[in-house]
Amino acid sequence: MSHKTAAAAAQTIGIDTGKNTLHLIGLDDKGAIVLREKVSRGRIAARFANAPRCLIGIEAGMATHYVARELIALGHDVRQVPPAYAKPFRQGHKNDFRDAHAIAEAVQRPSTRCVPVKTDDQLDLQALHRVRSRLVGQRTAVINQIRGFLLEHGIAVRQGLRFLRQQLPDILAKRGDVLSPRMTRIIEDLSGDWRRLDERIKHITEEIEVLAHGSESCRQLMTAPGIGPLIASATVAAIGNGTAFAKGRDFAAWLGLVPKQMSTGDRTILGRISKRGNRYLRTLIMQGARVILLRPANWAKHSFGLWLTAAAQRLHHNVLATALANKLARIAWTVLAQGRSYEARVEPKVA
Predict the structure, then answer these.
(1) What is the pLDDT of residue 189?
(2) Where are the domains of the chain?
(3) Long-range Cβ contacts of 141-145 (<8 Å, 24+ apart)
(4) What is the pTM of this model?
(5) What is the DSSP string of 1-19?
(6) In CATH terms, is domain 12-108 a member of 3.10.20.600?
């Protein structure tokens, strides 16, 4: 069968992505393989330009959003399948064509939750967050290295970034009795790296805040308690308008804020949270929840008063923060899905 005839007969096509080449498997309406082809990344749009409209499953991963947008522009129904959802459909040993076949099988299942195609604005916002996260990690590494060098010479500084920033100039100026000139120079160089990282982090944070205040979805998210420009913009960059999820509970589960379930028979066994999905966004939402817990006087204003007060009496503070983060994730999804601001329910005062 020629490539042109095979493409016309294919109802579903699975694409396994690589850096330079894409492997294609096409299935007809009975599930039989009618297309097996390897195409370079630069020729994928030309390959499908004249092909009849079909369902295309593409492995979510490196540079797939760009390829998916090109194929959508040609009129195809393109869905990005996470590799974890395609793996159960792979038969035999792993190779690229078998991966493509598994993707073609998985994309036909109604229960497969696919990754929405991100816009250029979402990718730009996501890139800013990833750069900021990398810089924050580098700054933490520099700070830990400074603390380690000082501790090796018997100088312990109180935990916390601001305490080290306040005490470091005095330590370098007055502790020449325990710090050699070479060690003093090394720590001064590290302090310079710290200042440069602070400046870059500040610049990127300000850029993210400007973009968040300029987005209607981000402004609506920022009306919810515990959600500022960073969390709002990271949420929009990750899920857009939230249509990939049927309800807020699914979004919270995707973030890994629900317990692992190991149930069998009539026994329901719930363990620790699953920690699946977007680790960066989950960390931000957890931090937002902990900020809310620090201010009990504002709980009632956010309509969390009765629930948080009762939960705080029976739950460990870490469990309470996780439960609140789960609630914030559900609120964030509702705000995005319904396209409206958060409205707190006024709780009646207890006489």
Answers:
(1) 96
(2) 12-108, 120-214, 241-338
(3) 142/190, 142/193, 142/194, 142/197, 143/194, 145/190
(4) 0.86
(5) --HHHHHHH-SEEEEEE-S
(6) no
